[in-house]
Amino acid sequence: MKKTSVLSIAIALSMSASAQAAEELRLLTWGGYAPQNVIDLFEKETGIEVKVTNSNNEEMISKLRATRGSGFDLAQPSQDRVLGAQKDHKIYKPLDLSKIDRAQFIPSMLSATEGQSTLKGEVYAVPHVWGSSGLVVNRADAADIKDYTDLCNAAYEGKVSYRLKRPTLIGFAYAMGEDPFAAYSDEDKYQQIMDKVGQKLMDCKDNVKTYWSGGDALLNLMRSGETVAAMAWDAGGWKLNQENADITFVAPASGALGWIDTFVLPRKTKNEEAAYKWINFVMQPDIAAMITDSAGNFTASKGSDEYVDATLKSQYQASFSAADIDNIKWYPPVPAGLEKIEGKILDRVNAY
Amino acid sequence: MSTISRSRSPIKLGMWLLLAPLCLWLLLLIILPHLELLTYSLSAPDEGGFTFEFYGEFFGESLYWRTFLRTAVMSILATILTLLIGFPVAFFIAKMIKGRSKGILFAMCLIPFWVSELVRTFGWMILLRESGVISTALQWLGFIDSGVELLYTDATIMLGLVYSAMLFMVVPLVSTLDSLDDSYIEAGYDLGGNNWNILREIVIPHAMPGIVSGCIIVFMLSLGNYLTPVLLGGKDSLWFTEQIYTQFITRFNWEQGSAFGILLLILSSLIVWLGLKVTGQSFTKTMG
């Protein structure tokens, strides 16, 4: 263990050196959640420099796990990835809720996120941006795609795309009439559902042009017409809709999958104060609207709808009827062990 | 006595100082991480303690060893292809032309490597995709009616691998071929040899160290490549490095990823060793 101590001293030295230069906030977040105009405003108001690292759920957790929770002051994993990661790797620090201006949040979302991220009486996360994943469809070429399983229609051979990640498994499971979230607590049942979904995805492989991994890769596939339908995030669909009116986001018949990206403190955050300042700053309605414009998704900030661009609002209303919103399946926290089951299924589908 | 030891110690100190960067580099960046990898791969995450479970998983689940086999076979194929294409190129640069044009040709081999591998791979994607340059050109010329997808196949992966490894074959070959005295080749012709005899009896034996070291580098680069198979291979990209990445990053299964990493190291070293044995070469002779 001697090497660990040498390493941590070296890291600590390099960090204290950089901390002395200017007060800074090291933010681990998603692309679009910290646009430059918001960073500039924050810097003007507080004098704190914001260093942004764009990432995704798995990378965020892996990064924090590798450094045992240091290297960043504020992170934004999705709500379902807070508790499991905390139980397994202890990478987060409980929030001091008295330092957060709770009046700025939509109350129902705040209490839902807090409820799902409470461990031993301590709250670890508050909500920031929320959205859904479902289908992005080119209505000129594939108007009859209404649900995830329709992607496997023989008519669309080589013309669709999705990710080889857990949302695809969950989405297909719902479309096949199963309820995977209800089976979260029953490992055997979950394994059964996943085996079934894995078989379906293997049969469906001829339809897939390629499994997309980055958001931009997907946008290019849809934009160029190389694929006519894909499983993707709502914001991506609305972005394409601005360029080509035929393409838009469709809430699947079996229900869109809803996610909430949160604010959490890494266990060894160096600048907790700045992290709270950032949370309170970006939850102001007008600032939150700027983030909505950049990320394409709505936030948990109360009253920010008024400031949001009218196009985005109408796109949202076109994709989601009131019934569709009620039908959104929100991700519950992932219990330990399930991801191993999913991982093996995904490997098999990839190798098939 | 004391004067001698005093005059000696600065030399020793100097030598150690010069050695220090190498030793530190070896220790901190090569040995320690591999030891850590080994420890991870052998420890049970929940109970703690010692386990071979993760190595068993590799041999037990056909998916994983098949992926490794596929990666190894494709890398060997890529190495052979690179050698077949690279040898004439290197021979041409080293023997057929002289002076300035030699430098220019050599630089032309180098220029693609001034941009990163990622950019080069994206370049291939722009050329080969269904709405890309080649497909559009073929449609315009009337050879095909609708767009043709050239990406996402094993052939595309092979193309990318050969392209990105070519330089590492050409450089060692040019330098060994350069050192071959032209008079040997002339003597070969004088003694009545034809092109094939001379290639087999004079050129290839002389170039053997270059061929072997080029092949080792290209094989290792292909086997350890991540970007090219993932980006160009699409849904059929199944590369062992991708499995390692997935285990570490998306599955949080560091133990399994470490076991795969160690297996990649051992198995690829074994393949190189076998290759040297089969062709009757020795590692020290090649590197020396």
TrEMBL record, chain A:
It comes from the Bacteria. Keywords: Periplasm, Signal, Transport. The keyword Transport applies. Its main location: periplasm. This is Extracellular solute-binding protein. SUPFAM superfamilies: Periplasmic binding protein-like II. The keyword Methyltransferase does not apply. Pfam families: SBP_bac_8 (PF13416). GO terms for molecular function: polyamine binding. GO terms for biological process: polyamine transport. Residues 1-21 form the signal peptide. InterPro entries: SBP, Sperm_putr-bd. It is found in: Periplasm. One of its GO terms (cellular component) is periplasmic space.
